[in-house]
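Weekly modeling sync, notes
Attendees: S.R. (lead), two postdocs, one rotation student

Agenda item 3: backlog of single-chain predictions. S.R. asked that every request posted to the team notebook include the full sequence so nobody has to chase files. The rotation student volunteered to paste the first one in as an example of the format we agreed on. Action items at the bottom.

Example entry:
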Amino acid sequence: MPIALDDIPLSGVEKAAVLFLCIGEERGSAMMKKMSRTEIQSVIQAMSRLGTIPAATVDAVIREFSQTVSGGAGVEGSVQVAERMLSGIMSDDAISEILGDLRSPAHGQNVWDAFAAVNEQTIATWLSGEHDQTIAAILSKMKPAVSARVLPLFGPERMGEITMRMVGLGTLSRNVVENLEAVIASDFLSAATRKSNVDPHQRLADMFNKMDANAFEGLSSELESRIPEELEAIKKKMFTFDDMVKLDGAALQRIMRMAEGNTLALALRGAKAEVRDAFMSALTQRMREMLETEMKEMGAVLARETREAQASLIDITNDLARQEVIRLPSNEDELIED
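Predicted structure, as returned to the notebook:
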C-alpha cells in the first residue's frame, strides 16, 4: 500500500469546489442556480472528495477570500456538505442523480464508516503486513473507539511504535487520504463484500421488527410449530419497539432528541403502557407534560402511522448502536434470581 506523501496541485474544478465551501451553503446554492447540470455535477463530485484542505492551501487558491481563512481555519468538503448545498435548489430525485454513487462506501468518508464496521481482528490482520507509518495514518482517520480496539492487537512493542508515529503525523494531505481510501475500498472492502454472506436470520429479524405485532404473532405461532429452532435464532436477533423498555434513560433521551416532528408522540400513542412509562421517565417534568399534551391533542391516529413512527425510532436506535453511541440490551444482561 504505497502512500505518496507529496501534495498534488488542485485542478480547476477542485479550486471551484474550495470556493463554494468558503462562501457557505446559502451563497453556494444561489450560485449553483446559474450553472448547468453538468457544471454542478463536476463541482459536487470534486467537493465530495476534497477532504480537509489546510488554510494555507485555501489562501493560495483564492487569495481574494483571505479574510475567510485568516484565522487559520481550513475548509472541509464531504458528500453531506454537498447534499445540503444542493437541497436549496433541487429536488431529492435530482440530488440523488447528481450525487450518484458518491454515497457508497467506495467514496470519501463513507469508506471509513464501512471500514470501522468490520471486526477489529480482521482489520488488524489485514494491516499487519503494512508499514507502521501506513497503519498510523489509517488509525488516525478511523473513529477513536475503533482505533482503540485495533491498536492493541499489534502487540505491545509495535503498538508503541505506531502510537509514536500517530503523535507526529500531523494533517494528512488530500492525496494521501485519497490513496488510503482507494486501497481500502478496492483491496479490503470489495474483498470483504465478496466473502461475506448475508445472514438470513438477521434479514428476517429486521423484517419482523417492522411487522405489525398481530401479524407477527400469528406468523410466529405457525413458525413455532414448523421450525422452532430457526424461529428462536431469529428472535434472538430481533429488537422490537417493546424491547426499548430495556434501554437506560440516557439512551432513550438520545433517541428522543433525534426523533423528527411528531414521531415520538405518534409512536407512544400506540405503545404498551410499560414502554410509554419508560420513555416518560427519561424526560424532565416539563418535557413530559409537553409530550403528554401533544399526544392528547393529536386526536385519533391510524394504527399504521403509529407502527411507522415506532419503526422510525427503531431505525434511530439501530443507527446509534452501530455508531457505538448506545448499546442494545442482550440476553447476557438478564438478571439471574434465586
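Discussion: group reviewed the output briefly. Confidence is low (pLDDT under 50) at residues 1-8, 64-75, 101-109, 193-197.
Action items: rotation student to repeat for the remaining queue; S.R. to check formatting next week.
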